Amino acid sequence: MNSHSLIVRNGSFMLFGVVFGFLLSRAGATDPALISGLLLLENFHLLWVIATAIGVGAVLNLLAKYFHWRNLSNGDLISFPHKPFVRALVPGALLFGTGWGLTGVCPGTAPAMLGEGQWFVGVILIGIVMGTWLVGFLHHIRLKHTQSHPS
Amino acid sequence: MTTSIFSGFPNLPLFPADLWPAWVAGAAIGGFAFAQRWLTDQPLGCSAAFGNVCARAGSRLPLFQGEAHSRATDWKIWFLVGIFLGGLFASVSIDTWAAPTHWGPLYEALMPQTTLGRILWWLFGGVLIGMGARMAGGCTSGHTINGVAMGSPASIVASLLFFAAALGTAQLAQFLLKLSGRLA
After folding, report:
1. pLDDT exceeds 80 at position A38
2. DSSP state letter for B146
3. Sequence-ordered list of residues with C-beta below 8 angstroms from that of A151, at least 6 positions apart, any chain
4. Residues whose CB falls within 8 Å of the CB of residue B51, separated by 6 or more in sequence, listed in order
């Protein structure tokens, strides 16, 4: 990919991000009080947001699959790559849920919250980078261990 | 409480006030996620970008090398930059910053009271979120909004566990805080 198309690509994803961040904000997903309201089963606003988003997405995905819609980027059929069932998925999902429940913040809403003026999320973003790096570090240690002790 | 971006304006009641109805915001998010897929053939996702951040910051760890975090995928970082600008636009367009203290009673009672304590608390929460998302291969956008709408089994399991753990954590926190009298 040449540098010109790379700039176009990065720029268009930045614009997608602007739309997504704005929508997350208007949806109330960037409001920790609404998140705790959902988790304490006191306010179901965000449940309906998530349910509608999944429902609309599912209908559009099914239409695209059955009517063979093509993507506008290279004209191929739209792809639906499923994420793999990795072994770390269960402990990972539980750790993620715990962090989400303790702070009311997730990786997608964090930058939008910072943009809205919720400065404390800057600290959480640093924590997310540290946590991501830690998984890479533990993965590296395990690789070294398996190489020195082949089973 | 909210503060006006442009001084001279009284405090406009902005944050929960400018909340869209749940079905409008949800439909817009679902439609947006599909539009991104249709235009670029790339599924929605947020947390993989933090692996790119590690790689660009100079980490040589093998997990952050290779295709998934190569420079060709740095649009993931630009997507997050866009989300930041989107949040900024959401506040500027209604002329009010979101209150940086809009935590609600649960988090208000749960967080340490000192600034240093809170910084460590947020770092700890962030580490859990970052580790969990990387291990699970996605977060609430990649697994829940994107994966569940495709009917992907791994994403359905991950999303159920996200919600179960978050629900359990919040409920347990509320129970303990009430027991110790720190939450009414």
Report:
1. yes
2. I
3. none
4. A132, A136, B63, B64, B68, B69, B134
Helix boundaries (H) for chain B: 22-40, 49-56, 75-92, 104-110, 115-136, 148-150, 153-179
Judging contacts by C-beta atoms under 8 Å, the chain B residues touching residue A72 are 38-40
B96 bridge partner residues: B4
Count of all residues that appear for chain A in the document: 151
- Other beta carbons within 10 angstroms of residue B93's beta carbon come to 13
- β-pair partners for B107: none
Written as one letter, the residue type at A77 is: L
pLDDT band for position A1 (50/70/90)?
low
Burial class from Cβ neighbours inside 10 Å (0-12, 13-18, 19+) for residue B139 reads buried
Here the ipTM equals: 0.95
Please tell me the predicted confidence (pLDDT) of residue A151.
54
Task: Note which residues in 63-102 of chain A have CB less than 8 A from chain B.
Answer: 64, 69, 71-74, 76, 78-86, 88-102
C-alpha to C-alpha distances, A58 to A27, A47, B134, nearest whole angstrom: 19, 16, 25
Decide which of B16 and A98 is more confident.
Answer: A98
Long-range pairs of B168-176 with CB within 8 A, sequence gap ≥ 24: B168/A97, B168/A101, B169/A39, B169/A97, B169/A98, B169/A101, B169/A102, B170/A36, B170/A39, B170/A40, B170/A101, B170/B106, B171/A39, B171/A40, B173/A101, B173/A102, B173/B106, B173/B110, B174/A40, B174/B106
**Among the partner residues B83, B91, B102, nearest to A108 by beta-carbon distance:** B83
Model confidence band, residue B9 (pLDDT cutoffs 50, 70, 90): very low
pLDDT score of B181 more than 60: yes
Number of residues that make up chain B: 184
Mean pLDDT, all residues of chain B:
90
